[in-house]
Each structure stands twice: as C-alpha cells, then as structure tokens.
Amino acid sequence: xxxxxxxxxxxxxxxxxxxxxxxxxxxxxxxxxxxxxxxxxxxxxxxxxxxxxxxxxxxxxxxxxxxxxxxxxxxxxxxxxxxxxxxxxxxxxxxxxxxxxxxxxxxxx
Length: 109
Prior knowledge:
5-stranded antiparallel β-sheet, 2 helices, 5 strands, 36% strand
C-alpha cells in the first residue's frame, strides 16, 4: 500500500512540474512570437497554444516546440464566425529553454 501511495505522489509531482514547465515555455515563446500574434489579439480571435517535445538533448533535457493557433472566439450568445483554426506561429526552444527559432505562418524571423 505504501508503494502505491508513494508512486501516486511522485506521479502527481511530475505532472504538476511538467505543467508548470509548459506554462514557462509558453510564456517565453509568447514573448518571442509577439509580432506573429499581434494581428490576432482582440475579441474576434481566440489564441491557443500547445507544447511538444521535438528532440532529445545529448547530455540532458529536451528540445521543445510551442505552437500558437488562432480560431474563432465563440463566447456569448452570438453565432460563431465560420473560419478554420490555423497555426499562426511556432517557436523552437533549445535544451536550455532559449529561443532559437520563430516561424510566423510561412515566413521565418
């Protein structure tokens, strides 16, 4: 029983640490991709983000890619605008969490 409880506590701690790390990566990526996101800020669009591992570092850690996407802001009683959600920016981060690439749509910064 003790082993099961210990495993549960360790698993929860790992998940919480990962979500905190994702939030930090998203914040750093949002700053780097500010110019890409600027046209989509406002009430018409809703900007979402996701974090994925894009590689493994030689010594330790991971390479990450943060993807930002914009879709219709469908809040309230009004009908939802009909346009598809699209990727508006991707940001690549190295093993140290430093930004090494920003892609706005099809153009690279």
